[in-house]
């Protein structure tokens, strides 16, 4: 995640320095803890949280669990990971639904924290899970706040209760109460109340939020906090906890480029769990918050579980089975490739998915250069083809490729590259389907069979035509030169066998075997 990118880089660099040490001294531990403290403070993590965190890490790093470990550096990384999980809340906490519907969820937070957008995201996610949410517009102060919620509700495909136009008119407490009654009457099982915010914490804001809570008795009060707010996040969270007493936290704008460490302090300072994390502007960019997975992302250990869950949601099992059959029968076409592209796009940003892989923090520059629109360009090229051309790319002559390039807004070179890549991929798929070893362009067969790589063969030919061995090992160089000389004189090199015997070597006789048995005392 972009918000914790700097913190992740600092911690990763600190641990990289540890891996060169076979045994950690107290000075090594103190130096590591000092770097971790600086990284957390630079990331805007609250001072009290930093002190408690580093004290626990130092105590455990100097204990027996590290001293007796085979790899002390990895043990320290594990300790930091576990303590990060602890300050992020420990265990994941899901929404708690009422036994008797409707479940009332009240949103609280400052103006601009992302409450209205989160209301739409939550409604859409609940719709996918089979619920029937009702959005209630209780932000009657901010200009056009009601209109914004109406637009968001329409995009999410959710119902909305908005009897007042807002813009400073209407009673939000009465709207909230009537909204819950409307949901009960129309059999909506979830009510999401979008409340008003302020630019800063004030008495009027807290009184209104408190009155809405008393009137609706919500099952969940979610405090939405901007991950880019800085050190003021802790003070704001404490103020809302004292005034409204929320039950859970939502981190918004985690896709921003701010330091964002203050958001990590909220769960530790307030004792309230983080339930959701908003990772983008789209209504699908909402994730259930897992403290252990977030800690792994910060430490550049990846988040493969979330990646698998997203893939399971986007890919249809029946479609995957059909694709596997087509690969096995060598009938995979550009139409099937287009279907796979569309399913990949359902998973979200490719850059974001690649960032979930372990170690990708060290390839930040390559990730930044990755363009998600490349999938759109590829899709445009394929859609510009006729069904017959997609099923049989071999019919694509020059005029057809020119037409496809013009239709997709691309160049003929782009079309040629796509067809060439698809042809290479098809050959690899056919090889795998037959149980063979794929030949990766520029690398040769993955099995590493002798003489399989053309480049390797060219080098051997060059050496055989007069060049000597360039090995830095004298013994190896002498052996290679002898082999080259033998090849030049027309001698046949021994082909070898599975038991290490050269082609001209004889198998051991019975007398030889008897001598070997005597040598080992078995005669």
Strand and helix map with partners:
Elements: H1 5-18, H2 26-42, H3 47-61, H4 64-67, H5 72-87, E1 103-108, H6 115-128, E2 133-137, H7 145-156, E3 159-161, H8 172-185, E4 190-194, H9 203-216, E5 220-226, H10 232-243, E6 248-252, H11 261-270, E7 274-278, E8 286-288, H12 291-298, H13 304-314, H14 317-328, H15 334-346, H16 350-354, H17 364-369, H18 373-383, H19 387-391, H20 398-408, H21 412-433, E9 439-440, E10 444-445, H22 454-464, H23 474-488, H24 510-519
Parallel strand pairs: 1-4, 1-5, 2-3, 2-4, 5-6, 6-7
Antiparallel strand pairs: 7-8, 9-10
Give a verbal description of the structure.
The protein has helices at 5-18, 26-42, 47-61, 64-67, 72-87, 115-128, 145-156, 172-185, 203-216, 232-243, 261-270, 291-298, 304-314, 317-328, 334-346, 350-354, 364-369, 373-383, 387-391, 398-408, 412-433, 454-464, 474-488, 510-519, and strands spanning 103-108, 133-137, 159-161, 190-194, 220-226, 248-252, 274-278, 286-288, 439-440, 444-445. The protein is flat, with a radius of gyration of 32 Å. Residues 440-444, 446-466 and 489-507 have low confidence and may be disordered. With 523 residues, the protein is of the alpha/beta class. β7 and β8 form a beta hairpin. α10 (232-243) runs parallel beside α11 (261-270) and α15 runs antiparallel to α18. Helix content is 54%, strand content 8%. The strands form two sheets. An eight-stranded mixed β-sheet has the order 3-2-4-1-5-6-7-8, with helices on both faces.
